[in-house]
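Researcher: I'd like a structural prediction for the single chain below. Treat it as a standalone chain; there are no partners to consider.
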Amino acid sequence: MISRGKKKTLVFAHDAGGAEVVAAYLARRKRKMRFSAYVAGPAARVFRRWRVPFKKAPTTRERIAKIIARGGSIIRVLTGTGWMTRIELMAIEEAKRRRIPTAAYLDSWVNYRERFGYPKRGWQNHVPDELWVGDTAAFGLAKKYFPHTPIRHVPNQYFKNITTRHRMHSFKRSKKKVILFMSAASRISETLLNEVLKKMARANMHCTVRVRLHPADERARFEKICARWQGVETEISHDIDIVNDIRRARLVIGPETVALVSALLLKIPTVRIVPRGEKAFLPFKEIRKVASVKQVLGAVRKAVRH
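Model: Treating it as a single chain, here is the predicted structure.
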């Protein structure tokens, strides 16, 4: 679990988004960097995929405090950010209480302050000593919302690995006309997938809809939706590597989710469905934005014609 060196980094992660960039960062440096990772929830699957060793993270403040107190010579506590638990926030707070430097990697472009408890009273206590971001858009947003916190640009190794794997491996385009649906960590994914399949079934569209689940999704719920629409060929991806799913696709669609950026990086036509009243947050104009599933059908027809 711990690579060689003197001082080590303690890592805490639970949610999948933050875990992706943190695990990729550690995987790149695990032979040179000394660290101990404590992971729970969807992040565990992510760390296993990246082959980054970890122990199960506790869910109580007392146990997290003990890990930090007994951690030995710690150079920093590094976390992802998320919504599902307070593991990362408790780790930051406990480390700051012991005057151990803290850093959190912001993996997206939305709800920056809310990740640390805003607008609840005392939310500033959860903000780390340093914030890490992977691109200029994120840097600008972080500066806006945290004007007094140092912001550090740390290249997003997760995205870098995607483009590297794509370049390294030759790929023959499949004759199968695949539309890839990217799920997000929200029930809106289920609603949108159901609408997509319903409209495609009624339009008698001849293609395959492949569904790539978010690590926090319940597979059974999506299998039930797919089974509901027998008029459309569907499949749920079992592929570990997102690159393989994207490269098979003629078109990538889904709700507003960071996973769509991966398709953009590989130059696959991409459409995000942002219903009226929902806020768009991806800072990429190249990803087409539509307000309804009905508008997606035109993009699907164009994709399957070629």
